[in-house]
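Case study.
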Amino acid sequence: MRKCFTCVICPNGCRLEVEADGGTISVTGNLCPRGVEYANEEITDPKRTIASSVLVDGGVMEIASVRLDKAVSKSLIFPIMDVIKALHVAAPVHIGDVIIHDILSSGADLIATRNVEARQ
Amino acid sequence: MASCREDEEGLRMIESRDVVIIGGGPAGLAAAVELDKRGIHDVVLLEREHELGGILRQCIHDGFGLSRFGESLSGPEYAQRFIDEVRERGIEYHTDSTVTSLSPERIVKVVTPSGLYIYKAKAVILAMGCKERSRGSVMIPGERPAGVFTAGTAQAYMNIYNRMPGRSVIILGSGDIGLIMARRLTLEGCSVKAVFEIQDHPNGLDRNISQCLDDYGIPLYLRHTVTDIHGRERLEGVTVSEVDGNMVPIPGTEEYHPCDTLILSVGLRPENDLIKDAGIEIDEKTSGAAVDENLMTSVPGIFSSGNVLHVHDLVDFVSLESERLAAGVASFIGGGLAHDRTLQVIAGNGVAHVVPQHLCSSSAFSLSFRVRSLSSDSVVRVRQGDRVIVEKRHRRLNPAEMVNVDIAAGSIGKEGNVEVEVV
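After joint prediction, the assembly is written out as follows.
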C-alpha cells in the first residue's frame, strides 16, 4: 500500500510518501526522524492536538483558552470537545494549569494557555 | 506614566529615550528584550491595545515556538514568555497608548489615557504588525448585510470575546488564519461548507490544508471566488464563480451557496500609515519599509521588523528577525553602524519580493523572500553580477512559504547590485 500525506508536526509540512507492506513501513520525503514517527502513527492510529476555550467564573475575561498537551487519537477529538464545552472553571486561571488530567483516558492533559485573573 | 510637564504655552515637554518601540506584539517584545540583554535600558515600548502580545493573544491553536523554543505552544503562551521577560527586566511599557505621528527627526507623539506625550528618540523601532485585507480591498459587490467578517475578526469574537460569528459558514481565501478558523468553527459546532481560493494554489501552509480542512472533510476549491453577497439584515448566501487564468470570473459558472457567515482570509498588509507619514521609503512589493541589512529604513535611526516590514508565515521568524534588529539598533546607538546605502538587492526571476532591499556593508545578514509560483526541484540563486554568492536546490518552492537564506560576512563585493532569482 502506498500513501502520500503532509506531515503536520512542524511548519515545514514535509510531503511524505509512505510504503506500507504488512508490518513494515518505509518513509521518504521527510526532513527529520519525526516524519517517520508521524507516518507510522498516521497509518496505525492518526493523532492530533486541539485548542479551544473554557468558561471562567469570576474572571476578568469570560473565557480562558486551553489545549491538549499532546496529540490524541482523532476519534477522541469530538468527544473531548463535548467535555470542554460543558466545563466551567473558577478564576484565577494561569498558563499551564491542568484543567483536566488524562481527559477521557486519552493520555493527554487539558491545560490552560492564557492567564485570566479574578475580577476585583 | 512618567512625568510630563507643560511649558508656559501649554505645549508638552518632550521626553528623551534611547529607543522608542512602536507596537507590543511579538516583534516589539522580542526587540525590547534583546535590547535590554545588550545593555540598552533607556527604552519605552508603546502598545495601543489594553494588553501586550499583539495578535498572538487570539491565536489559541498550537504550533508556535518550534524554531524559537523547540516546543509547540499556543499564541498566548508564546507571547507570555516574552511579556514575562519584559516585566522581569523592568522594561518600561505603556498599553492603551496609540502613536499618532512619527517624524523623520524621530519624534513620536502618543495618545494615552493620561494625555498626549511626546518622545524624542535616538532610535525608533517600527513593530506595528499587519492588518487584514477586507471586503473593500478585494471589492466584492453585493448587499451589505451583517455576517461578513475578516478571519481575524471572527477569531477575536470567538477566542477573546466568547461570541460565535455564525453557524453556517463559507470561507473566501485560503490564508492560514482562514484555515485555522475553518477548524475552530467546526470544532465549536458550525457547519463550514467550503473554502474558495481565487488563485491556482492555496495561500496557507500545507500542514494547515491537511490538519484544518482535510481532517474535517472541508472542501477547498481553487480558481473560485465570491462574486455576489445576498441578504438584507443578515447574510443569506453568496454567489461563487469560477475564474479564468487572469482571475476574472467566467460568466455562466455562478453558483448560489446559502450561508449566514462569510469569512474573508484574503491576505495581510503591513500597517504602514505611520511609515508613510514619516516619509520613509516604502517597497511597493512588500508594502513595508525598504530596509538595509541591519533592518534600518531610509531614515537614519528608524528600524523595522516583523509583519510591518513584510508579512511572515511564522511568529518564530518574527522574533528572530526582531532580535537581529536589536543588534543593529544597539550598534547604531553606540555610533558604529553604517547607513550609506551603496547596493540594492533585487527580486529577480520568479521572486515576488525580497528583504532587505538595500545593503550598506559586507557584514553577515539574512535574506528573506517569497517566490511567485509553485515549483519543484528548482534552484534559488543569489548573485552579484555574474558571481554566484549562494546557490541551493529546493525540493519544493511555494509562494505561501517565506524562504530565508543566510549570507556570510564578506561575501558581498563593493560593486554591483545583488539579485535573487529562481532558476
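Observations recorded in class. Chain B has a mean pLDDT of 94. Chain B touches chain A at residues 57, 60-63, 66, 72-74, 76-77, 80, 158-162, 184, 187-188, 205-207, 209-211, 215, 313-314, 396, 401 (CB under 8 Å). We will return to this complex in the next lecture.
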